[in-house]
């Protein structure tokens, strides 16, 4: 049985059960940058013509461009590591594990994360949603630099997509913490 004395160390160990070291660091770094994006986005000031200004705007744009690169690395790495079918099994008509996970949920139990299961099937579109947010942000930035009349419309799409991804991030984080908490309690009590 794993010793659970230090909660941050226990959380790191818990993540090691499903994520290689590189993925854990990349995942954590992206989570921190996304959190900074949410914080800075609420403080960006705009001129009447839609030009962002101030230190929060610069931080948001800089971090957003870094996230564009890191999200691409994360997506390619995850798909290379586990394959498209892991995240999108229903595209192949493979829904057996998803159905088992739903039956487990209906029994008021939390299913373990598994290949081609419910958690993986939610993570796949989550990777796509992150890609849409960073691409719409980068697209807005490029159109804004080019002084395009389409920039405000793409900025609005970016804001809308960001709202949707914020809901996903909260749910994803909450489910991860719930899985960790249940695992942690089982480790402490010696039950399974």
UniProtKB/TrEMBL annotation:
The keyword Transmembrane helix applies. The keyword Repeat does not apply. It is a multi-pass membrane protein. Residues 20-180 form the Cytochrome b561 bacterial/Ni-hydrogenase domain. One of its GO terms (molecular function) is electron transfer activity. GO terms for biological process: respiratory electron transport chain. GO terms for cellular component: plasma membrane. It comes from Lelliottia amnigena (Enterobacter amnigenus). The lineage of its organism: Bacteria, Pseudomonadati, Pseudomonadota, Gammaproteobacteria, Enterobacterales. This is Cytochrome b/b6 domain-containing protein. It is found in: Cell membrane. The chain crosses the membrane at residues 21-45, 57-79, 126-145, 165-185. Pfam families: Ni_hydr_CYTB (PF01292). InterPro entries: Cyt_b561_bac/Ni-Hgenase, Di-haem_cyt_TM. Its main location: membrane. Keywords: Cell membrane, Membrane, Transmembrane, Transmembrane helix.
